[in-house]
Design goal:
Layout (H helix, E strand, L loop, with lengths): L2 H17 L9 H23 L23
């Protein structure tokens, strides 16, 4: 899961938990929202901790040494 999907899960879970006031028979909408929010937070933590290591860049190479050619100096 990417970071966008994790944030979308957290947002959808927050909407279901805090902003929806309707009830369905056999489904607890508040619990579904909490589960979505938990899955989003866990996915975001995994993304930040595991996939961040793949983006570490090696330091740039050192600048090449410039040597002057003294054969043509007057």
């Amino acid at each position: 899961m990417g970071m966008g999907w994790c944030i979308a899960l957290i947002a959808a879970g927050g909407i279901l938990t805090f902003a929806v006031d309707w009830h369905m028979q056999g489904i607890n909408v508040t619990l579904v929202g909490l589960i979505l929010m938990a899955a989003g937070v866990l996915g975001l933590c995994a993304y930040v901790s595991i996939f961040k290591r793949r983006r570490v860049q090696a330091p740039p190479p050192a600048a090449p040494v410039v040597e002057e050619d003294h054969r043509f100096v007057r």
